[in-house]
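This section describes the prediction task in plain terms. A model, or a person checking by hand, is given the sequence of a single protein chain and must write out its three-dimensional structure as a string of tokens. No templates, partner chains or ligands are provided. The sample shown here is typical of the held-out split.
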Amino acid sequence: MAIFRTSEGRSVSHCHVRPRPVDPCHDTDWSQAQKKHWRKYMARFFPHSVEFRPPSRKYNCFGFAYARAHGWFEEPDFFIEDDFTEVPMDEARRGDVLVYEKSGEMAHAAIVKEATDGKIKKLRSKWGELAAVIHKPREVHRAYGHPARLLRRNRRHAAATMK
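The expected answer:
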């Protein structure tokens, strides 16, 4: 499994699409036909979401929100501990990360695209193996639960690094 480091140097395990992948990653990305299928699914069940990157198995919401779409991460806790500070939900601003929880567990992360007077209007997020989309905070798959915490990157220019 590959290693990605937080700004504090801690390693965060993740994986990539490749032959003989490490679980939970896959050996191939979606074919064009499969991407078309998933786009139809999104259009049917989430008609207000706007795709800005195609369906892909290359990265998930945590990889998108915490590591700039680099890989599939299952445990983003070190990113949150090292690179982010929790801020009040009513102080949202562009670039913050909204964390969703279901049954007390972190289930999804989305980047704030638009906020007005501290209220989140639009988000950008990667939906599992589906597309990366722009959506409203409450317009997500039910598996993601509800908005629970708002995080702000500690150092705007400090980037996590891959090793």
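For orientation: The helical segments are 32-45, 61-67, 77-83.
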